């Protein structure tokens, strides 16, 4: 049996741990051979492969990024793309494919399985934690830890200068990183994409914090939007690669707060720092288990499925369950955090 492996979409701490888990179990327990495909779906689309055996995965557990490389290439958006993927998989003698990715990568996997019979197993990843059908995705815990450490540090400098510090974290469609790091870091305002914010209310929270002689920390997810539709924020613009670029809500918010409250405000955009570097212990644990269970799904011939975390168990669900809708923050969870605002 020869199994192909690819990692697609934005990278995420823990990808290498998955790859290692897959190869170690597949080789040692089932005697499988593996072929790595470079840069997500670009690999099978162009027949670009990389050696994937036990020596190749040695020492990669704590390393961020992915030894296979990643891209957002979508073969379904390319004329004849699905057929080229099938031909290249056949040319490489691939019996089954493990696709590790988020909504887009797994969406391609689901279509290739349903409409073209490709034997694929999915593994969910995203720092945003916004994939349905799994309690957590790996990468999220690492991102939350990085953001929390940043917030802890910003508290002390904010207090020294009695400034407002706005921290912009990732999360285009869901505010999981903002909510978890905001709670863990003791933020005074948390703003998420799921609920439009009222600028007057934000300024009132900021001012109430100064009244008790503390400097406020505002955590804002990059996809958060003000309630007032005429604000300068846009949903996002497309860059020359066709990727969505958001318009800097953190900087905009700090300017508005400064203008309205007369208090000095600064912005920190954490950006890709949240995605780089070594995965947390939790993410290594989750990613490794996902890898082990993905190989078991291959062994069972259980294709079109994705491994998922339910409580502490790893289960299998149809890939479509994860890609059909985004998992957003429940309003009751957000309301719970409100007691700390202001
Ligand atoms: O999907 C994860 C994510 O980190 C988002 O939160 C963020 O908006 C996006 O990727 C940015 O990705 P890139 O800069 O790689 O296009």
TrEMBL record:
<dbReference type="GO" id="GO:0005524">
    <property type="term" value="F:ATP binding"/>
</dbReference>
<feature type="binding site" description="in other chain">
    <location>
        <begin position="126"/>
        <end position="128"/>
    </location>
    <ligand>
        <name>substrate</name>
    </ligand>
</feature>
<dbReference type="GO" id="GO:0006002">
    <property type="term" value="P:fructose 6-phosphate metabolic process"/>
</dbReference>
<feature type="domain" description="Phosphofructokinase">
    <location>
        <begin position="2"/>
        <end position="298"/>
    </location>
</feature>
<dbReference type="GO" id="GO:0003872">
    <property type="term" value="F:6-phosphofructokinase activity"/>
</dbReference>
<dbReference type="GO" id="GO:0042802">
    <property type="term" value="F:identical protein binding"/>
</dbReference>
<keyword id="KW-0963">Cytoplasm</keyword>
<feature type="binding site">
    <location>
        <position position="266"/>
    </location>
    <ligand>
        <name>substrate</name>
    </ligand>
</feature>
<feature type="binding site">
    <location>
        <position position="10"/>
    </location>
    <ligand>
        <name>diphosphate</name>
    </ligand>
</feature>
<dbReference type="InterPro" id="IPR012829">
    <property type="entry name" value="Phosphofructokinase_III"/>
</dbReference>
<feature type="binding site">
    <location>
        <position position="103"/>
    </location>
    <ligand>
        <name>Mg(2+)</name>
    </ligand>
</feature>
<feature type="binding site">
    <location>
        <position position="163"/>
    </location>
    <ligand>
        <name>substrate</name>
    </ligand>
</feature>
<comment type="similarity">
    <text>Belongs to the phosphofructokinase type A (PFKA) family. Mixed-substrate PFK group III subfamily.</text>
</comment>
<dbReference type="InterPro" id="IPR012003">
    <property type="entry name" value="ATP_PFK_prok-type"/>
</dbReference>
<dbReference type="InterPro" id="IPR022953">
    <property type="entry name" value="ATP_PFK"/>
</dbReference>
<dbReference type="GO" id="GO:0046872">
    <property type="term" value="F:metal ion binding"/>
</dbReference>
<protein>
    <recommendedName>
        <fullName>Pyrophosphate--fructose 6-phosphate 1-phosphotransferase</fullName>
        <ecNumber>2.7.1.90</ecNumber>
    </recommendedName>
</protein>
<feature type="binding site" description="in other chain">
    <location>
        <begin position="272"/>
        <end position="275"/>
    </location>
    <ligand>
        <name>substrate</name>
    </ligand>
</feature>
<keyword id="KW-0479">Metal-binding</keyword>
<feature type="site" description="Important for catalytic activity and substrate specificity; stabilizes the transition state when the phosphoryl donor is PPi; prevents ATP from binding by mimicking the alpha-phosphate group of ATP">
    <location>
        <position position="104"/>
    </location>
</feature>
<keyword id="KW-0418">Kinase</keyword>
<dbReference type="GO" id="GO:0005945">
    <property type="term" value="C:6-phosphofructokinase complex"/>
</dbReference>
<keyword id="KW-0808">Transferase</keyword>
<dbReference type="InterPro" id="IPR035966">
    <property type="entry name" value="PKF_sf"/>
</dbReference>
<dbReference type="GO" id="GO:0048029">
    <property type="term" value="F:monosaccharide binding"/>
</dbReference>
<comment type="pathway">
    <text>Carbohydrate degradation; glycolysis; D-glyceraldehyde 3-phosphate and glycerone phosphate from D-glucose: step 3/4.</text>
</comment>
<dbReference type="GO" id="GO:0070095">
    <property type="term" value="F:fructose-6-phosphate binding"/>
</dbReference>
<dbReference type="GO" id="GO:0061621">
    <property type="term" value="P:canonical glycolysis"/>
</dbReference>
<dbReference type="GO" id="GO:0016208">
    <property type="term" value="F:AMP binding"/>
</dbReference>
<keyword id="KW-0460">Magnesium</keyword>
<feature type="site" description="Important for catalytic activity; stabilizes the transition state when the phosphoryl donor is PPi">
    <location>
        <position position="125"/>
    </location>
</feature>
<dbReference type="Pfam" id="PF00365">
    <property type="entry name" value="PFK"/>
</dbReference>
<comment type="subunit">
    <text>Homodimer or homotetramer.</text>
</comment>
<feature type="binding site" description="in other chain">
    <location>
        <begin position="170"/>
        <end position="172"/>
    </location>
    <ligand>
        <name>substrate</name>
    </ligand>
</feature>
<feature type="active site" description="Proton acceptor">
    <location>
        <position position="128"/>
    </location>
</feature>
<comment type="function">
    <text>Catalyzes the phosphorylation of D-fructose 6-phosphate, the first committing step of glycolysis. Uses inorganic phosphate (PPi) as phosphoryl donor instead of ATP like common ATP-dependent phosphofructokinases (ATP-PFKs), which renders the reaction reversible, and can thus function both in glycolysis and gluconeogenesis. Consistently, PPi-PFK can replace the enzymes of both the forward (ATP-PFK) and reverse (fructose-bisphosphatase (FBPase)) reactions.</text>
</comment>
<feature type="binding site" description="in other chain">
    <location>
        <position position="222"/>
    </location>
    <ligand>
        <name>substrate</name>
    </ligand>
</feature>
<dbReference type="InterPro" id="IPR000023">
    <property type="entry name" value="Phosphofructokinase_dom"/>
</dbReference>
<dbReference type="GO" id="GO:0047334">
    <property type="term" value="F:diphosphate-fructose-6-phosphate 1-phosphotransferase activity"/>
</dbReference>
<dbReference type="GO" id="GO:0030388">
    <property type="term" value="P:fructose 1,6-bisphosphate metabolic process"/>
</dbReference>
<dbReference type="InterPro" id="IPR015912">
    <property type="entry name" value="Phosphofructokinase_CS"/>
</dbReference>
<keyword id="KW-0324">Glycolysis</keyword>
């Amino acid at each position: 049996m020869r199994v192909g492996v690819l990692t697609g979409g934005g990278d995420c701490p823990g990808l290498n741990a998955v790859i290692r888990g897959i190869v170690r179990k597949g080789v040692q327990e089932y005697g499988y051979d593996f072929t790595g495909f470079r840069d997500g779906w670009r690999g099978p689309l162009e027949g670009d492969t990389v050696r994937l055996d036990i020596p190749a995965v040695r020492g990669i557990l704590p390393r961020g990024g992915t030894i296979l490389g990643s891209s957002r290439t979508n073969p379904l958006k390319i004329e004849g793309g699905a057929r080229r993927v099938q031909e290249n998989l056949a040319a490489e003698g691939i019996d089954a494919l493990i696709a590790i990715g988020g909504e887009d990568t797994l969406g391609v996997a689901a279509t290739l399985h349903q409409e073209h019979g490709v034997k694929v197993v999915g593994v969910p990843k995203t720092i945003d934690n916004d994939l349905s059908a799994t309690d957590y995705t790996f990468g999220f815990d690492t991102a939350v830890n990085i953001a929390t450490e940043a917030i802890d540090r910003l508290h002390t400098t904010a207090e020294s200068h009695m400034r407002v510090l706005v921290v912009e974290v990732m999360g285009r469609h869901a505010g999981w990183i903002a909510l978890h790091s905001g709670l863990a870091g003791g933020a005074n305002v948390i703003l998420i994409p799921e609920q439009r914010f009222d600028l007057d209310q934000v300024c009132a929270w900021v001012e109430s914090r100064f009244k008790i002689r503390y400097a406020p920390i505002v955590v804002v997810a990059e996809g958060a939007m003000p309630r007032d539709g005429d604000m300068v924020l846009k949903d996002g613009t497309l860059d020359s690669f066709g990727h969505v670029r958001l318009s800097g809500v953190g900087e905009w918010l700090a300017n508005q707060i400064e203008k309205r409250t007369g208090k000095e405000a600064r912005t920190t955009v954490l950006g890709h720092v949240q995605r780089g570097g070594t995965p947390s212990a939790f993410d290594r644990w989750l990613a490794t288990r996902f890898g082990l269970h993905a190989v078991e799904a291959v062994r069972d011939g259980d294709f079109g499925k994705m491994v998922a975390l339910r409580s502490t168990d790893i289960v299998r669900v149809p890939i479509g369950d994860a890609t059909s809708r985004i998992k957003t923050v429940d309003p009751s969870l957000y309301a719970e955090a409100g007691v700390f605002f202001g």
